[in-house]
Amino acid sequence: MKRIYIICSLAVILGISGGISYFLIRDANTAIPASTTFITQNGETFNFGKEKTTLKLVEFIYTHCPDVCPTTTQKMVELKKDLLQKGVYGKDIEFVTITIDPYRDTPEILQDYKKGFGIGNDNDWVFLTGVKQQIKNNQKELHKITDALQFQYKDPGNGQFIHSTFTYLVDENNKFIAKFPMGKDFNQQDVYDKILDKID
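Given the sequence above, the corresponding structure tokens read:
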């Protein structure tokens, strides 16, 4: 009887270890496809394959979001101040905010959203969307990056998206480094420490 318990326990441990290993390996090999292209809040083309200069903190939002998205953006504004003080923001790390609602979130709407948080003309924090008239292509491009980072979202039809609640740190080659909770659970110190750890 003891032997059965030992075998069962070993099977459970091996199964859990295998599952953990799978997710660690999957995350370690995750990268944003180089072909992924968006439009910035200024109407300029942004291609991840050409943006291989700095670490990036990637945030997904939609501007009609009532809680998690704006809370995260505000916390990133505070994080930016700490990184500026350290002298690494814009030099070693940039922020990327991508809307999951490119039909409504036009470049103009993203500009207003950006200004609403006092971000202003910050070239090191880019807001990305698609061309309104090309909604199918926009969704295709968006899924390239959300699928790669395991970010899930869905519009139930009322414009209030259901979505994952993570932000992502990627390296200069757009490979996954770490993910952090959004909203009130976004811990600025944890993100700050991880960014500095990767820079050092």
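Residues 33-197 form a domain with the Glutaredoxin fold (CATH 3.40.30.10). Try to locate this feature in the token string yourself.
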